[in-house]
Amino acid sequence: MADQAxxxxxxxxxxxxxxxxxxxxxxxxxxxxxVDNTKLDVKSPTDVFLxxxxxxxxxxxxxxVSRTAVAPLERxxxxxxxxxxxxxxxxxxxxxxxxxxxxxxxxxxFIGNGVNCARIVPNSAVKFLSYEHAANAILxxxxxxTGDSEAELNPVLRLGAGACAGIxxxxxxxxxxxxxxxxxxxxxxxxxxxxxxxxAARTIVRMEGWQALYKGWxxxxxxxxxxxxxNFAVYESLKDYIVKEEPFGPVPGSELAVLTKxxxxxxxGATGQTVAYPLDVIRRRMQMGGWxxxxxxxxxVQVHYNGMLDAFSQTVKKEGFTALYKGLVPNSVKVVPSxxxxxxxxxxxxxxxxxxxxxxx
Length: 361
Prior knowledge:
The chain is mainly alpha-helical. 71% of the residues lie in helices and 2% in strands. It has a two-stranded antiparallel ribbon with strand order 1-2. InterPro entries: MCP, MCP_dom_sf, MCP_transmembrane. Belongs to the mitochondrial carrier (TC 2.A.29) family.
């Protein structure tokens, strides 16, 4: 009787639930769909290790080839960033490249490129893998918050995921970037010189302390947010827009042509580096602070900065606002071929290694 009374007094919703198994099945399917769309595929430790290793190799080779191809422009950009406008030795892209050729020969174009390539493997691996995990975590939280299992990342969320990835990757490889900057800037006849990456690291730690390896870290952290964040946000948002809106006509399936992806990458790279470029200039100058001398009014002066704001203040006061964009032209010129070569090389490596996981996607 009690059971019958309980059944009679049960809420209508519960009675409907008990009498309609379809309702339960539908709700269970919705929950399963939400979980399936927000979790990563579970793989064995061996599969995960092989996937990460292949990604490291493919991304490292792609980064090394692309960076080596534009090494002359990369070095000229840094030389333009740190020189003083009152005694400018490099007065533009073509004149600067000729000066390097005449004074240092072919080797001068590739000074500092070895350490630059050496940091590409860990930087690319950490950056892209961090972005993937950050994006998945943000997407999971976003879908859970909205209750929409079909929700996708919007540009703002992609910007956040890219910023997280950039900060992690930059912090992990910053000492190598700092050493690369000094190796790149030293020229024939420099008062201070290093005989290679390891010698530079030992000398810097001995003479300036280990904290010197992180000079300019703060503006780098601030700059990496718009730079890497915009790279990922603009690139993926452009791809989504082209696929969904079809502004240039029908797009077969959901795969874009390589040239279209290159165009998206070029726009993303140009946008990110233009917005963050002044912070890159300040970062380089802080890295060189106290290490190199410049000539002002005929006298050699050793340059020192007491932090990021002081570096900004001194640069603008002595050289004007345009000094914050020194080297922007060669840096912009190298963006398109660098991205193009990175994509093509990665695709070749992916095919050779039958790689399932694609960093660029």
